[in-house]
Amino acid sequence: MDIEKMVNSKWYQIFEWGYRLLFLNLLSIAVPSLLAFLPFIFWYFHQDSGWLMLLTIVLWGFGFLPCFIAAFSVIKDYREDKTGNVFAMFFISLWKTFKDVYKLDLIITAIIGAGGVGAIFYWDILAEYETIGPDSGTAATVIFIVSVVGFVILFFLILAIFLAILQLPMIVANFRMKTKDLIKFSLYMAFRYFFKTLAYAFLIIGPIALVGIFQSRVLPIYMLYGISLPLFGIYLISRQQYWHLSHNLENLKAEIESKGEKNETGN
Questions:
Q1: CA distance 11 to 5
Q2: What does the DSSP assignment read for the chain?
Q3: What's the half-sphere exposure (Cβ side, CA atoms, 13 Å) at 2?
Q4: Where in the chain are the domains?
Q5: CA 32 to CA 63: how far, in whole Å?
Q6: Are 65 and 105 in contact (CB under 8 A)?
Q7: What is the pTM of this model?
């Protein structure tokens, strides 16, 4: 048997990528799930404790972001002909990623957690106003308007954070930046290349939407490939753009700085 021919065959490469993406997906779910395990167990036996469920979600989200970025970095390494055990590469990348983004991760987790609590608060006010009706008085109407404005602002804030997060795997995999620069650059890339960012969002949200529609029929597939396969697609879409950016970093810095100066003079 010609081993070299078999290894270089299309079917073998599909199989190889299949098990790589499988383990990357499982690890991306398992690591944050272990982090959130204890509060989830306590919530499971005391389901009237809403703060335990909130803590579970916050811890899972905090653990997921570095895993999300690390999985992308491993995909990038494999596509650039680096070799190694998928488990070892993932945890090495996870540790490196965590050191690079833990401050940003804390900031994002705090903002999303506070935004989620605020959204629930405003939603409860809106629901109560709808029950009472518009004849409840001027004060209630003012509170209703403020709640609507607050809810809309929170929605767009969380949306902006989500779009910026979609750019983080590529940024962290290609550049070394301080936390302030990561925030600035991820927001810049999210809105400077808005339609590409929307494509990334579609790849990430699409499988989740399918799980919501078809539930148990699609959930097992999502658990196996619902994160890593979209990340593979994001890599294919973004690789040429980020290769160009990484080789023209000075031009990119100048462009960002010029836009910042325009914004300052405009204000």
A1: 11
A2: --HHHHHTSHHHHHHHHHHHHHHHHHHHHHHHHHHTHHHHHHHHH-TT-HHHHHHHHHHHHHHHHHHHHHHHHHHHHHHTT----HHHHHHHHHHHHHHHHHHHHHHHHHHHHHHHHHHHHHHHHHHHHHHH-GGG-HHHHHHHHHHHHHHHHHHHHHHHHHHHHHHHHHHHHH----HHHHHHHHHHHHHHTHHHHHHHHHHHHHHHHHHHHHGGGTHHHHHHHTTHHHHHHHHHHHHHHHHHHHTSHHHHHHHHHHHHHHHHHH-
A3: 5
A4: 3-266
A5: 4
A6: yes
A7: 0.86
Token look-up 């404005």 returns 149
Query: Tell me, what amino acid is at 227?
Result: I
List, for residues 191-221, the tens digit of each pLDDT value. Answer: 999 999 999 999 999 999 999 999 888 999 9
Distance, CA of 113 to CA of 105 (rounded, Å): 12
CA nearest 258: which of 194, 196, 188? 188
Alpha-carbon distance 194 to 154, whole Å? 20
